[in-house]
Design brief:
Blueprint lengths: L1 E4 L5 H10 L1 E4 L8 H7 L5 E3 L10 H5 L5 E3 L10 H6 L3 E3 L6 H16 L2 H9 L20 E5 L3 H14 L2 E5 L6 H5 L3 E3 L3 H7 L2 E4 L13 H6 L4 E5 L8 H10 L2 E6 L18 E3 L8 H19 L10
Parallel strand pairs: 1-2, 1-3, 3-4, 4-5, 6-7, 6-9, 7-8, 9-10, 10-11, 11-12
This protein binds (2R)-2,3-dihydroxypropanoic acid.
Length: 320
Amino acid sequence: MRALVTRAWPKATQNRLAKLCEATFRDPDTPMSAAEWMEAATQYDAILPTVSDNIPAEFYDAAKGKVRLLANYGVGYNHIDTAAAEAAGIAVTNTPGVLTDCTADLAMGLLLAAARRLGEGERELRAGRWDGWRPTHLIGRKVAGATLGIIGFGRIGQAMAQRAHHGFGMKVVFQNRSRVDPQTADRYGATQMANVAEVAEVSDFLSLHCPGGADTRHLIDAEIFAAMKPGAILINTARGDVVDEDALFAALGTGNLGGAGLDVFQNEPTLDPRFLKHENLVLAPHLGSATDATRAAMGHLAIDNLEAFLSGNTPPNKIV
Ligand code: DGY
């Protein structure tokens, strides 16, 4: 059994995997080229990719009959063509659950940082521009008691609601593709609304927790920015392409969007230079799950999936 790990993983998880199979830990820690993917298609029984991998469309056909599993390190799998994988007889797994708390923590951190203008304040201090306390200096937005709109009320959306409602006394409204059991919503004092626009209309903060992919591409578009309360703040720890970035810059330009806390971007890791022109944006380089405990847990869960697959059982987090 030959397995390829596409990027560097936490040491302990590499050690565990090395004991389980003939594992190749690719070095350097850079994205694989299309040529490397095509080569891997004929060499490995399992590949353990991650969320920043670009898998060429031709990979799946080429891997048919050789690669049997793509055990993704990450909960999001919009970088994997699951239909093409299934058609080629390749199982796909992911790592849900273990990154819920850390991602929600980061979303709450971005919300607080954007509301209270922490990025601007830090830049002012570091540049030696601070001239002391004054009543009108860097005035932000009050978080306690404000309304938080959540788009996508799965594990991470609910963890965000937990923090916002029970930690910060926020009122929570949300949109979710399917109906959420009222008892679940009640746990966070949350109200489900019919659609994204309705949530946007009443929210002081709008936080995105839906999956990426074709179904949610540009879900937050010009129409939603126009529906938002003037001055509202957007938080995105989901996927960059959920937001139409041109529409975001237009809304920042008119002032209808008051600011944003963003952990994900449409063309990662290339940052549209327009982001750097706006002081009221708090920008992070896709750090949602970046804690030692969570990154280790993600690796262990990917290995659990591989181990189950190898022993002929259904992997606990099988997608197809
Ligand atoms: C995921 O797992 O999908 C995240 O974006 C990485 O933290």
